[in-house]
Amino acid sequence: MPALYDAIGAGYGTTRRADPELADTLASLLALPATGRGLDLACGSGNYTAAMATRGGIWTGLDESATMLAQARQTAVPVNWVRGDAAMLPFADGSFDALLCALAIHHFAALDAPFAQAQRVLRAGGRFVIFTAFAEQMPAYWLGRYFPRMMARSIEKMPARAAVHSALRGAGFSSIEV
Questions:
Q1: pTM (predicted TM-score)
Q2: How many Å apart are CA 170 and CA 133, to the nearest integer?
Q3: How far apart, in whole angstroms, are the C-alpha atoms of residue 17 and residue 80?
Q4: For residue range 108-137, what is the model confidence (pLDDT) as tens digits?
Q5: How far does CA 84 lie from the centroid of its chain?
Q6: Which residue, 3, 57, 61, 125, has fewest beta-carbon neighbours within 10 Å?
C-alpha cells in the first residue's frame, strides 16, 4: 500500500515551515553534540530535519513517502534522506545520539514497533524527543469551534497520553517527561 503522503503530499513543503522558536526548543531538548548524529523519524518534507541540521550535528531524515522525501531533498541544508518505515528502521543498533519525531506519531499504525526501533538505534544516554498533541487535549483547541467534524476525526487518530507513555515504557525508555 502506498504511503498516505505519496497520495496527498504534493506541494506540502511549499506551505509549511519549521517554527524557529519551536526548532530552538527541540534542539535544546535533543542536546545533540555538534558532531553527533540525529535521526528525524517520519520527517515528511524535512522542515524540522533541516532546521535541526542548521543547529548542529549530522542529520538523517527518514520517511516512508517518496513524495515527501522528494520535497525534502530540495533543501540546501546537508541531510541524509532515507526512505523507510519507522517500524523497521534500516540502521544499526546505537547509530544515533538523538532522535526527533515531530507531528507524526498519529500516522503510525501502532506505537510499539516504532518506539522499540527508536530505542534500538539510539545510543545509550541519547534522547528521543516527540513533539505531538494528545487526544485528550485536542477538544479544547479553538479549531473545534469552526471545524468540529474535522477535529473529531483528528482526535480519533491522535494517541492518548497514557498510550504514548505505555509504548515508550514498553520500548525500554525509563525517563519520560512531558
A1: 0.89
A2: 20
A3: 19
A4: 999 999 999 999 999 999 999 999 999 999
A5: 13
A6: 125
